[in-house]
Every structure is written in C-alpha cells, then in structure tokens.
Amino acid sequence: MNADIIQAALADITAEADPTPKHLKLASLVSAVFRERGIELVVVGGSAIEFYTEGAYVSGDLDMCVVAATTALTVRARQEIMATLLAKGGPRSWQVSGLFVDVLSAFENLARTPIRRLAGPWGEVQISPVEELIVERVLISKYPGDYPPAHECATKLLAAALLGEVECDWSEVRRLAQCNAYKNWNDVKELVHEHAQALQVRNPCDSDE
Amino acid sequence: MNTPKLSKSGIPAIPMNEPMSWEDWLAGRRTRRETGNRVAPEIIRRPSSSSDRRLRELFNGERGLPFKKTEEL
Asked: Would you call B36 an interface residue with chain A, using a CB distance cutoff of 8 Å?
C-alpha cells in the first residue's frame, strides 16, 4: 500500500463523522498495513459488537489483537507500522484519524467457529467470533455483579443472532457457556429463551438439549 | 462473493465462512439498529471506562462521536 493510497484513506477516515463506519474503515486500514508485515489482527470488544449489531455502543477507541504473525511484533515494528499511518503515541495505543487504536496482545479465543470477515475499503477486517462475544457479555453482565451495559450488549448480540443477521452456531454457544472458562450456560439459556419469545422466533436452544 | 444469505429481517447476514462485502454490510445497518432497539435502548454506550480521560479530551467531553439516529442510517 503506497503512501498516496494511505494518505487518501486517512483523509477519508478523518472526514467520516459516523462512528461505526469510521471504526470499520480504520480497522480495514490498520489491518492492511499490519498484514503487509505478516501480522494478522482481529477486532475485539466494543467495535466487534458494533459491527455485528449497529448497537450504538462503541466509544472512541478501536481494540485489536494479534491473531497470527509470521514475524515478531516488536515495539519497534509496531511503531514503524503505525508511523506509516501518521499515528501519534504508542507503544500499544495510538491516535489516528480522530480515533484511538489499541493493538493489544495475542487474541484470547476459545471459540471453534471462524473469525468473521468483512471486506473493508482497504482490505479485510477480521472480527471476534460472535458465539464467544455472546457468552462473554452474558458472563460480564452477571459477574462479579449485575452490569447493565454488558446485559444490553448481550441482548443486542442475541437479537442479531436470533434473527439471523449474523450466522451463529448455537451448539458452539452452548459448548462455550458450559466450559470451565465461562460456566454460565443457565444464564445464557435463560436470556436466549427470553429474547426468542420477545422476538417471536424459534428458540435455537430447544433443539440443542 | 456468493449471493448473500438473508436474515429473517431481510438483510444480508454476516456470514460464518466467507467475507461479507462492504456494500452488504452497509445495506443492513438500519435494520440491525432497529433489531437492537427492540430489545434494548437505542444508545448503550457505557457512561465511563478506564479510557475516559483520553476519550473525553479527544471528543469534547464525550466518550466518542455522536451516533446517527436510526432513521438517518
């Protein structure tokens, strides 16, 4: 990706005032420049939820993790890559085109389902599997105490999945929720039941007992 | 890319095994927001987080850019 293309991309992203496409465009550009150095990133957290749900949840930062690398991602390499985007800051968080980008550590992922992919304007964006996001948000919504923001995220993710707006493997949701890392199947099942009723769709957990 | 599978709400589904086109993703934005609005408030941005200081400095006291209204998507 040459400097002219990057310059045009940065101008486009800077001018974008709508937070969700702004995050997705920036994720596409950041992914592209890291990919050129043999490093694959995945979007995690609030931005991932936003891309699945349009849920008006995301704030001003974009969190990405390393999902694969053919070379070591040293501090020097990170700074060099982000310098091509005229980024300020570091070594794990930078300001670019009016947002913060955090490139965190290795991707923590127990899901066996694929990382989802969106074709962004400057290259593919990889997104944390929806199955684990659902189970994780349900857990955070209940433990260590009730946490309404996580509950609202979980419900929006579940609604998108129940209506098929994102393809979801419900058997994987169940497996994850039953594994020792989460152990919250009853909470997940209850929420799925509640929202399947509210949305008047078949409860996918009914056929999964 | 293949013809996208449609959701029950009639928009291209974010697929499991293949990339979704930018155009298909854009086409579903309003419906995805409307689906979320059926189960939770329209805007669910957290009121605070550990990143508050830097976010509020960058976004004039807010934690991010304002969201478009559903009808504007």
From this structure: yes
Kindly state the DSSP code that residue B73 receives in the 8-state scheme: -
Asked if B19 and A18 come within 8 Å (Cβ–Cβ), the reply is no
Interface probe for B, chosen from A59, A167, A168 (most Cβ of B below 10 Å), is A59
Residues of B in contact with A98 (CB under 8 A): 58, 65
Q: Does B9 touch chain A (CB under 8 A)?
A: yes
Cα A85 to Cα A34: distance, rounded to the nearest angstrom: 11
Give the domain ranges of chain B: 1-73
Cα-Cα end-to-end distance for chain A: 50
Q: What is the pTM of this model?
A: 0.95
Residue A3 CB burial class (10 angstroms; 0-12, 13-18, ≥19):
exposed
Query: Which domains, from first to last, does chain A contain?
Result: 3-127 (3.30.460), 130-208 (no CATH)
CB contacts, 8 Å: A166 with chain B: 13-14
* Cα gap A101→B15, rounded to integer Å: 26
Residue B27 touches chain A, beta carbons under 8 Å: no
Per-residue confidence of chain A (209 residues) as pLDDT tens digits? Answer: 899 999 999 999 999 999 999 999 999 999 999 999 999 999 999 999 999 999 888 889 999 999 999 999 999 999 999 999 999 999 999 999 999 999 998 999 999 999 999 999 999 999 999 999 999 999 999 999 999 999 999 999 999 999 999 999 999 999 999 999 999 999 999 999 999 999 999 999 886 55
Question: Per DSSP, which regions of chain B are E strands?
Answer: none
List the single residue in B with minimal CA-CA distance to A122.
B22
